[in-house]
Each structure stands twice: as structure tokens, then as C-alpha cells.
């Protein structure tokens, strides 16, 4: 799978899209945090729920929704599960703001019914990570790109092998919103990505430079509480070392109880 190709794909009317099945992993201990975890392009929520259930985080509730099936420009308009439309990950590629708002609002709705004393988080892999990072910017701005209010108070964001949508305009937009810098600076973000080696290509779907540049732009735009982790030779998948990092990072930044 590659994201290179036409960027002219169709924009499906949002009202015609339906999210797939949502899988929930209940906490085995005291419920201290809820994390909506978003899968990658063409995947589904059940693919991640089994892995997340095995992590030593008994105080976390995981919500794993499935994206709508929609035409995707990267596949020549062929339909698959996707949080938004994407053609090419590059500086010149257009951002599907309508699709991003649509999915970020779905994530916010899933979190909005959680208990008031529970910390709310969003994370994801690949396109799911991109959607999670877009949610982080909505949190900083307190609204979506269409102007509707974003009402969820996020406590942490995790992105694996992903990229930052709307990266070209983030710095400028941050300067024009009161308190956006304060909200951005206080939001912990963990980003992980594979790097290239001479013997291994690394991530051949979302290239390392896209992940590294996303981290750099977020930091320079005011998201100062950002942790950037790299794994030599890691392709477009996750490994136990990366999962261990997620567990340690979440436990520390959410002040979770013992494993």
C-alpha cells in the first residue's frame, strides 16, 4: 500500500457515510482513562482491540471504532475504510477538511459520554494517527475547521507511523486563536515512527520524513509537551518495544494506577 497517486478523488457526501462497528475493551481495574484508538487506512477497529486488550494498562478503557467505507483518491477512487480522503502525503496535497472534521467529531462524540472524572485521550496508527493529531489541533483551537465548537478536553494524544494534516497552516492559525498556545503546550503527545537503515527500508507507506516533519511543526507551533520516538528499520507496523513505550508513557502522563 502506498499513498502516492492522484489527489483528485471524489468527496463523498458525509450524510451518506456510516461508521462501522465499534469494539470496546473494558478496564480490568479502576476506570481512570478512556482512549479512542483509530485504525489505519483499509483496516477496522477489531484489528486493534485484541492487541490493546493485551497491554498491561488495566485502568484504561479502549474504544476502537471502524471508519466509514468511502472512495479514496490514493486507490483511484476505490472504496475502503478511511477516516478521510487522501491522495498523496506531500506539502502540495489538499487536506480533506470536511472528512477530518467528520471523523474528529465522531471521536469527540464517543468520548463525550464518558464519566466526568475519567481522562479522555485519542490515539491511532497511520491514517488513524493523522486523525488523532488533527483532533489535537481541534483541542487547541477549541473548534473544528468548519467553526463548530470542539468540546472535549483531551488529556493525551498518541500517534504511530502517522502524519500531521493541515501542517502548512498550523503555525499561522495558532497565532490567531486566543489561548490556543496554552492548550497546545499543556497537551502531552507521543509520536513514534520507523527510520531507514542501509539494510531495511523502514516505513515504506508513511515515510520517516513526514513523521519527523510533523513532530517538528507541532513543536514549533506550540505543542511543547511532545515526545518523539524512533525505531531503526521499523516498517509500517508496530512492535513490542513500541507498545512498551506507549504503556510507560501513558502511565506516566495520565498518572495511571499500577499494572
Please provide a brief summary of the model.
Pfam families: Abhydrolase_2. This protein has 7 helices and 9 strands, in the order E-E-H-E-E-E-H-E-H-E-H-H-E-H-E-H.
Describe the structure.
Residues 23-252 form the Phospholipase/carboxylesterase/thioesterase domain. This is Phospholipase/carboxylesterase/thioesterase domain-containing protein. GO terms for molecular function: hydrolase activity. By secondary structure, this protein is of the alpha/beta class. It contains 7 helices and 9 strands; from the N terminus they run ββαβββαβαβααβαβα. Strands 1-3-2-6-7-8-9 form a 7-stranded mixed beta sheet, with helices on both faces. β4 and β5 form a beta hairpin. The longest helix is centred in the middle third of the chain and has 16 residues, at 97-112. It is globular, with a radius of gyration of 17 Å. The N and C termini lie far apart (36 Å).
Protein traits:
259 residues, alpha/beta, 7-stranded mixed sheet, two-stranded antiparallel ribbon, 9 strands, globular, disordered N terminus, Phospholipase/carboxylesterase/thioesterase domain-containing protein, AB_hydrolase_fold, hydrolase activity, PLipase/COase/thioEstase
